[in-house]
Every structure is written in C-alpha cells, then in structure tokens.
Amino acid sequence: MQVVRRVFDASRKGQRIVANIYSASEAISDSERTRLTLLLAHANGFHKELWEPTLERVFAHKGKSWFIDQAIALDSYNHGDSAIVNRSFIDNEEFSPWTKNASDILAVLAQLGSPRNIIGVGHSWGASSLLLAEIMAPSSFANLIITDPVLHPGNSQSARDLAKLTLRRRYQWNNIDEARQYFTNHPFFRIWDQRIIDLHLRHGLEQIDDGSFVLKCRPTNESAVYSGSRDDSPHAMQNLPRVQCPVAFLTGDTSEQAPPQHITKITKDMVDCRHVVMNDVGHLLLHQDPDCTGDWYVDFIDAFVSKGAFPTANL
Q1: Span 279-293, pLDDT tens digits
Q2: What Gene3D superfamilies does the annotation carry (predicted)?
Q3: What residue ranges define each of the domains in the chain, with the CATH number in brackets?
Q4: How many helices and strands in the chain, by DSSP H and E?
Q5: pLDDT value at 101 more than 60
Q6: What share of the chain is helix, strand, coil (3-state, %, to 5)?
Q7: Do 58 and 25 form a contact (C-beta atoms < 8 A)?
C-alpha cells in the first residue's frame, strides 16, 4: 500500500484531525469496476495505523468487481497524531461525548468533496461513532461495516469501571525496549497479532523531553471517552432503526462489549442489516486476527456492491 498523511479541520474551531490515506501500490484505472472509498474509525485508546494489516488484506484481494480507490484512516481528536496537534485542547479532559467523534467524522466527510461513495468502517467506539454520525446526518455513508460496537442501554457499570481502571494504567516507559517487553508480556496485549503490537509501539507512543516514551492517547483522554458513553451509546442503540443504509456487523464470539446475542437482539428492526460472528476472538478481533477480519470485510463489500451501483468517488 501507499500512504500519505492529510490533516483535516475538526468540527471545533482550532482542532485538527490527522489521517492516513492509503491506496493500492499499483495504479488502477479500470473504469468498468466500482470505485470505493473507505473511511475508518478506530477503537478507544488506539490509533489509525492499527488498521494497516487488515487493509493490506483487503487490498490484496484481486479479481473483484470493485476496487478501493482510497482508505482514509482517522486519528480521533484526542488519540494518536491528532492528540499531539490538539494537546492544548485536551490536556485536562474528563468527559468526551461520543457525538464529538461523530461530528468530527462528519466534518471530514464534508471536506472530501462530492460526489462520494464512502463505506464507513469502524471498530468499538469508532463503530458506535459511525452509527451516531449516520443517525445525525442520514445518507452520509453508502454502507457501514460495524465491528464489535459498544452499544449499551445506559447506566453502564462496565463503562464506569473502565474509566477508573484506565486512569491507573501504565502509560510511560524509560525506553522503547522496556515498552516492547511490557506489551509483549502483558496478558491483555500478548494475544494480539505481532504486527499489531509492532504498529502500536511504532505509532502509539511518542518520545517526550526527558527521553521516555508515553502513549499519545493519555489515560485521561481514554478514560474521558469511556465516561462519554453515558448518553451517546444508548442513543446510538435506541436509534439503530433510523439507519437506512446497508449495515454489516462483525462481532467476536467471546466479546464482552458486544455479545453476539445482544447485537442480534438490538439490530432486529434495522432496515438492511447482516450480522456475522467471528470465532475464537473477543472484542479486539481486529487486533487478534486482522487477516480474518479483512476477509470478512471483503465479503461484506462484495455484498454491498452486488446490491446496486455507486456514484463515482471524487476526492
């Protein structure tokens, strides 16, 4: 894949959204195939580069009636490289409504120009934010791929617990080797694909003045996002029937955040919805098995394209 960096205006004055725009390594000029654009929103606590192994898998599929013209992976305003450029705005953040992330997604869409043919692809908080964006501004997306979304009915004890636990999480290491040892041996991270761990070390940390390495997304910001689920996660769940575009849900069979039976129940009244459960993975299925995740994304895109023609993307 080829990658270029682009900085968008956020929905709030002075803030920025940093993105990586990925495209196929070889030039594609086949006018007979459907040209698609992906817009990707990551999970809480993570960053845009963690999409790369899955995107590599998607770009590797050949002989399709469609091709990915561009895949635009965003760093949410208080995560990754966006957190660096927005640091003065987010240093003392305690509460981050999920509608902030959704509004920023819509702001980026507005800067892409039209006509456009966007498939939104999100994971966890990013998936819920895409749903909120589509609820806030219907027909923003041609289709949505929603990966293990966080959709709870409100008053979530789990979200409150995660907010507290995150504030106690280690986020600073003396050097990169110490950080690597931490992530490689920690029970939470060691089940990840090695490529994901490597990318997290390379792009999820920044070196500060004393030479140590810290998470770009500070625990305070990650905690603020968990706290911000209070109203917005229930709102997204309650308004799923308002989502009119075709939606594919992909969830992990052992996920505690998006138990398959819960997703099946809350999506039953959606207009056009498909739900697939991936085996032997949990909530962070994208991190555990990015290749299988990518294969399912290709299957979903095949189904979307078979349903009808798309307008030509113009970025």
Answers
A1: 999 999 999 999 999
A2: alpha/beta hydrolase
A3: 2-306 (3.40.50.1820)
A4: 13, 11
A5: yes
A6: 40, 20, 40
A7: no
